[in-house]
Structure of Cell division protein DivIB:
Amino acid sequence: MAIFHKKPKEREHPEQLTPWERFQRDAAENHRAAQKSHHSWSGKRLRIGDKLPKLKSQRRRLLFKRVVILMGCFLIGAGVAGYFISPLSHVQTVTVHGNDQLSVTQVKTATKINPGVALWSVIGHDQRTTKRAERAQPQIGKVTTKLVGLNSVRVTVKEIRIAGYLSTGQHYRRILENGLILKATYSQPGGGSPIYANFKSGHRLATMIAQYAKLPSAVKHNISEIKFAPNKANPERVHLYMNDGNEVYATISTFASKMAYYPGIVAKMKTKGVINLEVGAYSYPFKNQNN
């Protein structure tokens, strides 16, 4: 009589497996996965030689990328080096704009921007160029540069205008509208700017220059001389000699605001005379002046 052994019934839920049974199940699954990875889709077992073409192709692509990167870096470096040693990297022409009282040569000398200078030392260094120009030519207030075309530079300057000439006895020194008195002396004052005389106090002179700078250009150009002439009633009194033949008395602290009335007052005057702007604003002919 045959004895049949009943096959153990598999447990329905993985949670009912013992730790040993779970270990055996996981090992069997891992073995099947490893066997499957060594076979192709057709069931044929894969050999190491079958994988070599793919590895070689990957290595060729990686090598090609590296060669392209190295060649690109080399070409860029060669191009930059070639540019810096070529004439294109140097200033070919320089044009100057914004100058009025300074000549083109003075601006180029002060900024040191001339043909042949490296472009990279000029473009983008306006602040450094301005400081260098100010030291060489105090009348330059600001410098801006712009690249035009491949290697031409346009230089734009902002001048500090001349406020006049300070009389120092036998010589004259130029004064700028920012209050700076230049060291250079002249035997004769330049035209178009007034002479400042009898100013002993630096504070009075600085205030007078600041007031003068606020005037319209037409009124500025009509002033020939500004003489400090204080009296007991007005310690800030100044006496002006105008190019149109009139004379003006004014106060330093209110000079700019009061001189705004000058053109209107002159238009109503029938003869040359004196215009007093110290208190109010009135005029009288020379024959009746009483200083």
Summary: Residues 41 and 118 are 68 Å apart (CA to CA). Residues 53-85 form one domain. The two ends are 159 Å apart (CA to CA).
